[in-house]
Design goal:
heterodimer; A: alpha/beta; Rossmann fold; six-stranded mixed β-sheet; globular; B: mainly alpha; ABC transporter involved in vitamin B12 uptake, BtuC; two-stranded antiparallel sheet
């Protein structure tokens, strides 16, 4: 009897809580537009994890996957705005112009565009993550773990986001190991398992014993596993795809931001802003460190992670030189966000030229 | 007992009936797939095929989507009717878009009535140039046009990648892979306020009328038909085969190039990496579903266009994976090819008593 009372008390509490959450959630509906399939285990997968966090917070969500950046994006956005969604997250750069176009027609709907720079209307915000902070961690690990001093890097497209990642990675690796070289292969794709695997193979054949990637599939870590070299997971924790090769992963953690923004819409406190969050705000997360890494490296990485989070360490701290030896950032200075946003030159130590 | 008998002649009635049968079978199979996936089949089909075009805006989007498909398929029907297998319309579309986009960028921030015709013409020429490669290689070097035209698709996409990442990228665009926006004079005029349907639809309609005239009222159309039935007969008849091959490829390339122009100077308004969701390949389905007949192609392009729109609506309202749209396109082609069997064979039911 006693137990029964407690149990019913607890369950009614739970019920009450659920009802309250539902009441707070009101009717706010969020929509997400994805470039790829939700099962890519990379970019889109992580955005969908974020969407599920919004659902878990008691809001209704809708998503459309595989939306091309062609003329189709605009129609999907308009349809979502027309069908009672209050906030729409557009999660690929190529949706930038359609997002702003549709936002103009639907001033009461909030639009959140990932990785873009245009906020032409008051109902458009932009957001992105400082992934380069994660790459500072990866570079530190790669520089320590390499024996051949050749590090391979599979890149997607020569845009500032990717160049910034290569530079941040290389600078960190040089700091722990001045002899390393970063070799780049441009895959010219974000997601193409076949091409990515080939790129990784080419780098391994050139002597690379650690492979980093800025493309989304798990093909590269799997290729590394087969070849017996180290690799890092991209976007999601890819350890289970290549347990021996993957030393750690840089995870894109959109959930907290999404929940925050949807709640702001529900409370009427949403305002336009440009968000660029890193490790400190939890948008960039470092997965568990593999036990193959020496204990002192692991503790060093943990400390670096904390320092990046607190702002004590910045990924781009001078002196930084470009490939020709020109000073990019003076000693004691750090690169400002403007410089980071438009970064299109390699730092010293990166091999080859940026495709033009 | 059932017996399958070869027909003396392909049935003309069945020729036009099988596309309808294929669409019907696709709906049945589609409903079945929805059912197996755990969705209500009729509701799902409603969201797929009716809801997207239930209002004015939806209908205009259907026409917008069907325009490039129709235009490319009309061009392809010139090739396919005459036994030339141009699989690379996607590449011709891309190259046409590159050339016309390049011209549009030359007129950046300039206005004038003469700009748009030049931009459109440039796109047609671009498509023709690109289609002439497999045509010339086929006529003078006996290469296989299927392989050459297909491979050139990937080449064209790499050229586009190179241009939008490098020399043509927007100088104010933080090095993102896209060009500047075209000036208004370089864009196709919109037909209605608030809708995206643009003047490009007239290009498609003109292509329909012209192709009908060429196919059924000209000597060239007759030559194409004969070559389609038998290349040897065409040779005995003394037709200039090489000239015709090059001509049909040029027409096909021009149409695909114009489709590319319609996309970039219509709803997109700039060049970037993804200007076409593989219209050039989907148009092959459209051409065959329309039986290579201009009027058939109009209907076929509408049917296939709706599978794109329906997939979006079905995912938004019923959380059905959007890739089912591609499944539908595949099923239509599959059932069409399968039911083509009925063209050449008939099924006879024979009683066991004699």
């Amino acid at each position: 009897m006693h137990k029964f009372l407690i149990r019913s008390f607890v369950s009614s509490l739970v019920l009450l809580f659920t009802l309250t959450v539902a009441a707070v959630a009101k009717d706010v509906k969020a929509a997400f537009v994805y470039i790829g399939p939700t099962g890519d285990h990379g970019w889109t997968y992580q955005h969908d994890v974020g969407r599920k966090a919004v659902e878990a917070a008691g809001f209704k969500t809708t998503y459309v996957e595989g939306v091309p950046e062609s003329a189709d994006a605009e129609r999907v956005l308009r349809q979502l705005a027309n069908s009672g969604h209050d906030v729409i997250f557009t999660t690929s750069f190529g949706y930038m112009n359609p997002t702003n176009k549709v936002a103009k027609e639907f001033p009461n709907v909030k639009f959140e565009h990932a990785t873009g720079y245009k906020r032409e209307h008051p109902n458009v915000s932009t957001y992105a993550a400082r992934f380069y902070e994660g790459r500072t961690i990866l570079g530190t690990i790669a520089g320590t773990m390499t024996k051949s001093n050749v590090i391979g890097y599979v890149a997607s497209f020569p845009i500032p986001e990717v160049i910034r990642g290569i530079n941040s990675f290389t600078l960190a690796a040089q700091k722990v190991n001045p002899n390393i070289k970063t070799k780049i292969v441009w895959a010219f794709t974000w997601y193409d398992p076949g091409k990515e695997a080939e790129a990784a193979k080419a780098l391994i054949d050139q002597g690379a014993d650690v492979i980093a990637q800025h493309t989304d599939s798990t093909a590269i870590v799997q290729m590394a596993e087969k070849a017996g070299v180290y690799a890092f997971g991209q976007a999601s924790d890819m350890d289970k795809f290549a347990p021996k090769a993957v030393l750690t992963s840089v995870e894109n953690n959109w959930g907290p931001y999404y929940v925050d923004r949807v709640k702001a819409v529900a409370n009427g406190t949403w305002n336009q802003k440009d968000t660029w969050h890193g490790i400190g705000d939890g948008m960039v997360v470092i997965s568990d460190l593999d036990s193959q890494m020496p204990a002192d490296l692991r503790s060093k990485v943990k400390k670096l992670q904390a320092d990046l989070a607190s702002g004590k360490v910045h990924s781009f701290t001078g002196p930084i030189y470009d490939q020709k030896g020109n000073l990019m950032v003076a000693e004691g200075k750090t690169a400002d966000d403007g410089m980071l946003a438009g970064m299109m030159t390699y730092v010293k130590g990166v091999e080859g030229d940026i495709p033009k | 007992m059932i017996k399958i008998v070869k027909r003396d002649q392909p049935s003309r009635a069945i020729f036009f009936f099988t596309p309808v049968l294929a669409i019907f079978l696709t709906l049945v199979a589609g409903g079945l797939i929805f059912f197996i996936l755990g969705f209500k089949p009729f509701e799902a089909l409603k969201f797929f095929f009716i809801v997207p075009i239930a209002d004015k805006y939806g209908f205009s989007e259907l026409l917008l989507k069907a325009t490039p498909l129709c235009l490319i398929a009309i061009g392809l029907s010139f090739c396919f009717k005459s036994n030339n297998w141009n699989i690379g319309a996607e590449g011709q579309l891309t190259f046409g878009a590159i050339v016309s986009g390049g011209v549009a960028l030359l007129f950046y921030e300039q206005e004038g009535f003469y700009i748009l015709p030049i931009v459109i013409l440039a796109g047609a020429i671009g498509g023709m140039l690109y289609a002439s490669i497999p045509a010339i290689l086929k006529t003078y070097f006996n290469t296989n046009e299927i392989l050459v035209s297909l491979m050139l698709v990937y080449v064209s996409k790499l050229i586009l990648d190179y241009l939008v990442v490098g020399p043509w990228s927007n100088p104010e665009g933080f090095n993102f892979p896209e060009t500047r926006q075209f000036s208004d004079s370089a864009k196709l005029p919109l037909l209605f306020e608030g809708l995206r349907i643009h003047a490009g639809i007239f290009l498609a309609l003109a292509a329909v009328v012209i192709s009908w005239f060429v196919f059924y009222k000209t000597y060239l159309g007759f030559q194409m038909k004969v070559s389609g039935f038998s290349l040897k007969t065409a040779k005995y008849a003394g037709y200039k085969g090489k000239k015709m091959i090059i001509l049909v490829f040029l027409i096909s390339g021009a149409c695909a190039g114009l489709a590319g122009v319609g996309e970039i100077t219509g709803p997109i308004g700039q060049l970037h990496r993804e200007i076409s969701p593989d219209y050039g390949f989907t148009a092959i389905i459209v051409a065959f579903l329309g039986r290579l007949h201009p009027v058939g192609i109009i209907f076929a392009s509408l049917v296939v266009a709706i599978t794109y729109l329906g997939a979006e609506t079905a995912q938004i309202f019923m959380q059905i994976p959007k890739y089912t749209g591609q499944v539908f396109q595949g099923m239509i082609l599959f059932f069409l090819l399968a039911s083509d069997y009925l063209l050449f064979f008939k099924i006879k039911f024979i009683g066991s008593k004699k």
